[in-house]
Amino acid sequence: MKIKTIGVIGSGLMGSGIAQVAASSGLDVLLLDVDQARLQKGLASISESLDRLLKKEKITSVQRSETLKRIQLTTQISDFSKADFVIEAATENVPVKLDLFKKCDEVCPKEAILVSNTSSISITRIAAATRRPEKVAGMHFMNPVPLMKLVEGIRGLRTSNETFALVRELAQKMGKTFIEAKDSPAFVVNRILVPMLNEAVFALQEGLASVEDIDTAMKLGCNFPMGPFELLDYVGLDTAQAILEVMFHDTGDSKYRACPLLKKYVEAGYTGRKSGRGFYDYTSQSAK
Ligand code: CAA
Ligand code: NAD
User: Fold this and answer.
1) Closest listed ligand to the CA of 197
2) Active site residue 48
3) Of the four, 48, 116, 234, 264, which is 20 to 30 A from 22 by CA?
4) What is the homologous superfamily of the domain 5-181 according to CATH?
5) pTM for the whole thing?
């Protein structure tokens, strides 16, 4: 099977990065979101990322414009009737994803592969929302997609070998290193990373140190490129909370309960960089 046209669902942090990297790899991209405002925001972040890569001479201006030309924006899922492969990167929410996979199954060609970029949700469960579970898999990119080299591939219980081979092939075509992870809550990276980020919020809640000092401790003490609060702001506090809720719900293990302070920030609308405020304030001069 030759993959030529990719449908990407969600033009947020991850969907825009996935669309950019797919288009840079020579694929035609249909980028879907719920309204034009979100699509335009996604396109602006793709442009900005390409500008950074151009400035660093990682791409040429011809590659920049060709990448942008390959991305078509849409609010109509029926346009996915032209897609060979769909990568879903909508909000981390079970009903949203089940509904999207059901709709994709209805509109996409019957041979199309459907994958989810979910951070935590069972691929077997998502696949069961379709009539083609053997053609559904997990393809977990890391943030920021243009820079991070890893893709975790996840087989649902009914994913076929042919589908999984195509997922691996596509990840490699997009310049990524592929690892296979079991279909278990939060797979490998987030199983380890997200409880650590949650623990940092517990440390803050208990008054162990300030946001800045905890970040400095982990950057200088462990050589992390970002401190846990910088990373939570980068990933999105709402997304981190959603991941913890899946881990807690699906394992029943209390060690995965989301820290009350994390929930409080999300309730306040402090979801991180994307809203202008998380553990740091991105609207003021002192923004990180
Ligand atoms: N597109 C293109 N270029 C970008 C970019 C983007 N989106 N973001 C940053 N860059 C470039 C910058 O232009 C800069 O280039 P040079 O080094 O050539 O000057 C370089 O990347 C470094 O950027 P900055 O100086 O702005 O910042 P930095 O040194 O802190 O690097 C970072 C940024 C690569 C994001 C680094 O901080 C980092 O690796 N952070 C950790 C990221 C991480 O852990 N990601 C995983 C999150 S978890 C996940 O994704 C899974 C999940 O399900 C939640
Ligand atoms: P985000 O909030 O930045 O973007 C989500 C986008 O999905 C929004 O633009 C929203 O409008 C759109 N959306 C929601 N419902 C939709 C629908 N029915 N149809 C079309 N679009 C819809 O979120 P994000 O950080 O990009 O996360 C997207 C997915 O990627 C989640 O499953 C998340 O767990 C996963 N992920 C996130 C990260 C991260 O660091 N943020 C890393 C890896 C994977």
Assistant:
1) 1
2) no
3) 234
4) NAD(P)-binding Rossmann-like Domain (3.40.50.720)
5) 0.96
Domain ranges of the chain: 5-181, 194-278
Q: Which residue has its alpha carbon closest to ligand 1 atom 2?
A: 49
Task: Tell me the mean pLDDT in the region 107-131.
Answer: 98
Dump pLDDT digits (tens) for 231-284. 999 999 999 999 999 999 999 999 999 999 999 999 999 999 999 999 999 997
Please indicate whether residue 249 is annotated as part of the active site. Answer: no
- Does 194-278 carry CATH code 1.10.1040.10? yes
- Single out the catalytic residue among 122, 190, 198, 245: 190
pLDDT tens digits, one per residue of 60-75: 999 999 999 999 999 9
Which residue from 118, 239, 243 has its CB within 8 A of the most atoms of ligand 2, so it is best to mutate?
A: 239
Decide if 152 is catalytic: yes
SS (H, E, C) the chain: CCCCEEEEECCCHHHHHHHHHHHHCCCEEEEECCCHHHHHHHHHHHHHHHHHHHHCCCCCHHHHHHHHHCEEEECCHHHHHHCCEEEECCCCCHHHHHHHHHHHHHHCCCCCEEEECCCCCCHHHHHCCCCCHHHEEEEEECCCCCCCCEEEEEECCCCCHHHHHHHHHHHHHCCCEEEEECCCCCCCHHHHHHHHHHHHHHHHHCCCCCHHHHHHHHHHHHCCCCCHHHHHHHHCHHHHHHHHHHHHHHHCCHHHCCCHHHHHHHHCCCCEHHHCECCCECCCCCCC
pLDDT of residue 1: 78
Which of the residues 24, 120, 122, 140 is marked catalytic? Answer: 140
**Nearest CA, atom 29, ligand 2:** 89
